[in-house]
Amino acid sequence: MLSRPSEAASISAAGGSLAGQLLDALRSDVITGRYPPGYRLVERDVADTYGVSRLPAREALQALRAEGFLEVKKTRGLVVRSWSERDVTELFDIRQALEAVACRQAAANRTDADVRALRQAVTAADDAVAADNAPAAHNANALFHQLLVTASHNVTLGEIMAPVLFRVQWLVRQIPDPHAVSHDHHEIADAIAGRDGPLAERLAIEHAEHNRTTTLVAMFGSGGHGD
């Protein structure tokens, strides 16, 4: 039986479709570890736990599966997916390529407001690390990467990257020290502020590679590629 999350009470009161709100809540609960890999998500239990009918529960679960968070097991139905080393490596390949484009374009297209938002996210992550608040640090780091895409002012890139960033958020939360994820953000923000596209692109590639290695070590004890 699912434990009732804090978001459940707000689903029917907030705007937007019930299925969309439930998708956001379920995705957040998977990313933050409330439902770990292998956890079985049953339509009836989801509906009861989040206070919705079975139709939006079914739609939200189908959407979450399409985003790559769930998989079907023959004897168990829908469960939170597990990751292999190859899965992680392939996801970071995609993230690395797309975020390099985002950073290069952000350096060319960013506004002063974009730079302020990036620096605020970096500061928030630093403050959270200093306070030993890992969840807040991970949230600030995730926001930084979302803001990189925003600063690119490339709508299509944002649409493509959204599901990738959701899954990356999920993976990097396996890293016990959020500073290992965020320490490159200062340099990336500076390069974008200085409109240095080649530098921003190079830093993004190096940052993704560093994150890949750190995530693989945290999850599998190895920084290499594997199946």
From TrEMBL:
SMART domains recorded: FCD (SM00895), HTH_GNTR (SM00345)
UniProt GO molecular function: DNA binding; DNA-binding transcription factor activity
DNA-binding among keywords: yes
Pfam families, alphabetized: FCD, GntR
Keywords: DNA-binding, Transcription, Transcription regulation
Lineage: Bacteria, Bacillati, Actinomycetota, Actinomycetes, Mycobacteriales
Residue span, HTH gntR-type domain: 16-83
Organism whose genome encodes this protein: Gordonia jinghuaiqii
Record-linked PANTHER family: TRANSCRIPTIONAL REGULATOR, GNTR FAMILY (PTHR43537), TRANSCRIPTIONAL REGULATORY PROTEIN (PTHR43537:SF49)
SUPFAM superfamilies the UniProt entry points to: GntR ligand-binding domain-like, Winged helix' DNA-binding domain
Record flagged with keyword Ribonucleoprotein: no
UniProt protein name: GntR family transcriptional regulator
Record-linked Gene3D superfamilies: GntR ligand-binding domain-like, Winged helix-like DNA-binding domain superfamily/Winged helix DNA-binding domain
Superkingdom: Bacteria
InterPro entries named among the record's database cross-references: GntR_C (IPR011711), TF_FadR/GntR_C (IPR008920), Tscrpt_reg_HTH_GntR (IPR000524), WH-like_DNA-bd_sf (IPR036388), WH_DNA-bd_sf (IPR036390)
